[in-house]
Amino acid sequence: MVERLTVIFFIILCLLLGLYLILAPWDALFGPWADNYLLAFLTDRLGMPIIQQTIASTWFRGAVTGLGVLNIIIGVWEMFSFNKTVAMLHKLNPPPTK
Q1: Which end of the chain is more exposed for a tag (fewer CB within 10 A), N or C?
Q2: CA separation for the pair 75, 72 (Å, rounded)
Q3: In a domain, 98, yes or no
Q4: Separation of alpha carbons 98 and 86, rounded Å
Q5: Cβ distance 96 to 56 under 8 Å?
Q6: Does the pLDDT at position 77 exceed 90?
Q7: Residue 19 domain flag
Q8: Model pLDDT, residue 45
Q9: Rg from Cα positions in the chain
Q10: What pLDDT is stored for residue 56 in this prediction?
């Protein structure tokens, strides 16, 4: 039972993280992508404004979106191989014998 829950939570994590990584760089719902306080503080502290310019570029946003697509692919793949993954986890952690 623990193995099934582990795989289910992993699938949910992959799908939600993938959705966030696809939407966050492009949607204003999550706030401005390159104009956040932490990024401005970091670039000021390090004296490297190129970091903020790089993160604001469409190439970097595309790379983050690609990671999101990869996460969704992994989640869907895990859904289709659910029984196989559960069996593998059950084999790695057999129940204790009494």
Answers
A1: C
A2: 5
A3: no
A4: 23
A5: no
A6: yes
A7: yes
A8: 86
A9: 19
A10: 82
Q: Which residues contact 17 (CB under 8 A, 6 or more apart)?
A: 68, 71
Please name the residue that has the structure tokens 């790379």: 63
Query: Could you say which DSSP state residue 27 is in?
Result: -
pLDDT at position 18:
95
Judge whether 70 lies within some domain.
yes
Is residue 25 classed exposed, middle or buried when 0-12, 13-18 and 19+ CB atoms within 10 A define those classes? buried
Helix, strand and coil in the chain, % to nearest 5: 80, 0, 20
Q: Give the residue numbers spanning the domain of 62.
A: 2-92
For residue 97, tell me if it sits in a domain. Answer: no
Query: What phi, psi does 94 have (nearest 5°)?
Result: -70, 150
Query: Structurally, how many domains does the chain consist of?
Result: 1
Residue 76 has pLDDT above 90, yes or no: yes
- Is residue 72 scored above 90 in pLDDT? yes
The total number of residues shown for the chain amounts to 98
Residues 52-60: contacts with CB under 8 Å, at least 24 apart? 60/25
